[in-house]
Amino acid sequence: MVSGIFKLSRVNPWCIGMSIWAWLCLVGTAYADPYNYADTPSGGIFFDSGTNSCAGTPLTRTLNVSDNFTINDLNFGFIADHTYRGDVEVTLISPNSTSATIINGVGGGSDNLNVELNDGSSSLNDGLNHNTGVAPYQYTRGPSSVLSVFNGEQANGNWTVEICDNAGGDSGTYQRSELIFDGTPTGGGGGFSGTSTVPASGTVLNSYHKVTGLSGTSVTVDTSAGISAGDRGVLIQMKGATIDLSDTASHGDVSAYASAGRFEYVDVASVSGSTLILESAPTVSFSPTGYVQFVRVPIYDSTTLTG
């Protein structure tokens, strides 16, 4: 989720929302989003060279990416207990069958892995024993093969993680894998609206809906016309601040913000009457409800301005 707050220090009360709405009318272009998908089997899964050898049958885990986006950047999180880290190999395979062995027998006799792999970071062969009992991730290290090989692919679908042990005498317990993406939304969700050719002047790409109720993932609006499942929008509160309206030098001073200026991008999972069901509940608190709007924000992979 993308969220935040606009801060205003001294304004003309009539204009408190105008610059923000003008900004929103220009949002109908592609932008990057964070996407995370994790696999955390309860209690972990044992592996060793006898049951999961690299020449035989690796331990296989599947992470499903349900969103539609083009990969701009990919990091990979991994946690496993192992008494000889140099025995461990991890291969990542995309839905497009692109494969990279991102952990390939590095670390020698050091114990365990609690690491986020990021292209360009220092080597995983750091001589350190990792602690799998602390929160993800203890260290950021470089992969054995670059993760940028996946850049430009469509992320949607099943990703396969293969974990194996290439030598006897030691064993491990797999605990966690995580795909950590930066991506640009594409067709099939996230408010994608294909291509657009619009006049450069006087065209509003968004639709605006007054929020009359907000609870968990449910958002009630005055009208849901023009909103569909898969759309992206922004919940934004532009009212509620206390502004000095006196005919004095203090005119326009903001003495209390309340919740004014708060916003958060959200994705619509389904629409039922005037109720929007979001994919996840907003992390930002909005109040009072009557001061909040849902603004549909189309995302184009190609936009041509004319005029």
Average pLDDT, all residues: 82
- From the spread of the alpha carbons, the general shape counts as elongated
Strand order of the largest sheet: 13-14-19-18-15-20
Rg result:
24 Å
Secondary-structure content class: mainly beta
- The percent range for helix content is under 10%
Number of helices: 1
Strand content: 35-45%
Describe it for me?
The chain is mostly beta strands and 307 residues long. Residues 1-31 have low confidence and may be disordered. It has one helix and 21 strands. Strands 13-14-19-18-15-20 form a six-stranded antiparallel beta barrel. The chain starts with a strand and ends with a strand. Strand 6 (88-93) and strand 7 form a beta hairpin. The chain is 2% helix and 43% strand. It has one helix at residues 18-24; strands spanning 3-5, 33-39, 45-48, 59-65, 69-82, 88-93, 99-104, 113-117, 139-141, 157-165, 171-185, 195-199, 207-215, 218-221, 232-237, 242-243, 254-256, 262-272, 275-278, 292-296, 302-306.
In brief:
Helices cover 2% and strands 43% of the residues. With 307 residues, the protein is mainly β.
